[in-house]
Amino acid sequence: MSDLANNLINLLNMDDSFNDPPESNLPTVVSIANTIPVPIETVNPEEDVRFAQDNIRNVIRDGSLSLRELFDLARGSEHPRAYEVLGNFMKTYAELNKDLISLHQLTRKQDAPSSSNTVVHADKAVFVGSTAELGELLKKQRQANNATDLPQ
Questions:
Q1: The pLDDT value given to residue 127
Q2: Is-above-0.85 flag for pTM?
Q3: pLDDT tens, 21-66?
Q4: Cα(100)–Cα(94) distance, integer angstroms
Q5: CB 53 within 8 A of CB 103
Q6: Residue 42 and which of 11, 77, 112, 136 are 20 to 30 A apart at CA?
Q7: Does residue 16 contact residue 9 with C-beta atoms inside 8 Å?
Q8: d(Cα 110, Cα 117) in Å, to the nearest integer?
Q9: CA atoms within 13 A on the CB side of 93
Q10: Could you give the CA distance from residue 4 to residue 18 in angstroms, rounded to a whole number?
């Protein structure tokens, strides 16, 4: 034992029985070097989204009670730091609600069937070809428009 420890023992009138704890009482150190990482492909994304939604809902539910308690504490103490903590908590709580909504929107986008009949609108198109080809294309397009405009 060091001189400092001996001096403290004498100063505090302690006995010498508390020496270093036996090694059996020490916590065991677990090495994570031998763990096998789970590949991301084997994880079910839908299950993860459901899990995240449940966690966010639970935190929001518990946060509602905490928000009321913080509000009462800030009002009771009238301390500026309590109001600062309340403001930060309210901001985090609102962001958590937004995260839940964005998670719902993400799942809706993934669940929505992708339509292959999407219409593409080109505001600015560039024609690559000769002027004769462009004239012929425009002539065909005018004829097609005139054919659809005629009354039947």
A1: 75
A2: no
A3: 555 565 666 566 555 665 555 567 788 888 888 989 999 998 888 8
A4: 10
A5: yes
A6: 112
A7: yes
A8: 18
A9: 16
A10: 15
